[in-house]
Amino acid sequence: MGSARRKARANPKKRVEFQGGSRYSKAMVVLNRIYTRTGDKGDTALGSGARVSKAHLRIQAYGTVDETNAVLGIVRLHTNTEAFVKLDAMLARIQNELFDLGADLCVPDTGEKLEYEPLRILPKQVDRLETEIDELNHDLSPLRSFVLPGGHVAAAHLHLARTICRRAERLIVELKSHQGEHVSDGALTYVNRLSDFLFVASRWANAKTSGDILWVPGKTR
Known about the structure:
6 helices
């Protein structure tokens, strides 16, 4: 399924329709077959069509972005309440943008002209994340120590998502350091800012419930 989904995500089929006399274009993803057998030997296709090993750093990078998204799905099982409605809406937007990020990463920007316009993370998506970080952080008291993961179940899973997001960032940085590998500036900036958001979101969730669990240096010595 991975190869089929990535290619559909990065290069969506375009359909042009007419509605009420106005012309508009709608991106479509059509998946009518989940298994393809093309990856049975351990390789897979990028959105550009190039085939690489499933152990390739690029595959590890956007696979880890996918892991982050999966954990956010678990978080949202616990934020669909009135107390967390604001946070849940933010997480819904982020989950969609993580697919944008995966699409960005799976079509390397080599400068070559493609038959379609590849999906890229835009500065305004990063700007919105920063605005939402500031909005959540406004309600919080200053930290006097490092925070231990835990507290409310949503907060604990947000910490898990944060650590996976940081792993994705490390993989993207490593990928970009390799000669001939291209990573957009927007992709790297977004994943960096996202981990900050997830940290602040975890604190915000705990502030609504049990409060932060703080590290006490040398407590058990």
